[in-house]
Design goal:
This protein is of the alpha+beta class. Helices cover 49% and strands 21% of the residues. The radius of gyration is 30 Å and the shape is elongated. This is Transcription regulator TrmB N-terminal domain-containing protein.
């Protein structure tokens, strides 16, 4: 690693301040006039820099006879000081965690998180992959949501997500519209193969009941509303809201028709001339 002034940015110093310290370290100690010549900074600029370095423990002032000199602190001293600072912060963490949200009202801002980006949407789906084997996701998805995903997500991301989902063995209970069958018939072959073997419990509702562009799903104590076409993901961390959605989900399942998702996928693969692996 080069001894670059940028090295000290991790300590909250600017590149100029780091450069002055390195110059002084090479000189060991020096008058401001000498330091100015060697560092290329005028004295008027050096004094505020040296004052900051002094406060941070990077330099010290020496009285030599009738004049004043500046001395660079030993690198080992700076390292020791940084370790002590980190140790003090580590000891304070439990106290700081206890203070978190202590002045908030009944509903904390953290209960509802709003993302307006494709990365926020990916976070919603990637959080599903963190669930344990056998846990369940409950989803209701509108007619226009799946086509929006195919347009908005990269194929590589979808294939990777499908593969990881199968490995997690997380169960996806989904309520979809009849248009899902059209999607299965027209979807890219690689993506169709990626769907095969997923743990999906599928219920189908008539198209006219599902004319919206969103997927609403929940897991554990989190409800997520995803509108891919608008790059929007809303996370609601609230057990009462999740319980209400699950009740609505059960109603939707009761009204719909159970369908064997994997059978539909394998039948389409067979129609395209591929045998079940």
């Amino acid at each position: 690693m080069d001894a670059s002034p940028k090295l000290f940015e991790e300590f909250g110093l600017t590149e100029k301040e780091g450069g002055v310290y390195l110059t002084l370290l090479k000189l060991e100690r020096a008058k401001v006039s000498t330091l100015g010549k060697k560092s290329g900074f005028p004295r008027t600029s050096l004094y505020p820099i040296l004052e900051k370095l002094l406060k941070r423990g990077f330099v010290r002032i020496l009285r030599i006879g009738n004049h004043q000199e500046w001395e660079a602190s030993e690198p080992k001293e700076i390292y020791k000081q940084a370790k002590e600072t980190i140790k003090g912060l580590e000891e304070a963490v439990p106290l700081l965690e206890a203070l978190k949200g202590s002045l908030a009202g009944h509903i904390r801002t953290a209960d509802i998180l709003f993302y307006k980006s494709i990365d926020g949407i990916k976070k919603a789906y990637d959080d599903i992959l963190k669930l344990r084997r056998g846990e369940r996701v409950y989803s209701i998805e509108g007619n226009f949501s799946q086509p929006s995903k195919l347009r908005r997500f990269r194929k590589s991301y979808m294939l990777e997500w499908l593969a990881k989902h199968k490995k997690t063995e997380v169960i996806y209970e989904a309520v979809e519209s009849e248009k899902l069958f059209q999607l299965i018939e027209t979807i890219d072959l690689e993506l169709l193969k990626g769907q095969a073997g997923r743990l999906v419990v599928l219920t189908i509702l008539p198209d006219h009941l599902m004319n919206f562009d969103a997927e609403i799903f929940c897991f554990r104590n989190t409800l997520v509303i995803v509108i891919v076409s608008q790059d929007t993901a809303i996370f609601i961390h609230n057990p009462e809201v999740v319980e209400a959605f699950r009740s609505l989900f059960v109603i939707a399942q009761t009204l719909g028709k159970k369908v064997d998702f994997n059978r539909a996928v394998f039948e389409e693969l067979a129609r395209r001339g591929l045998k079940k692996e």
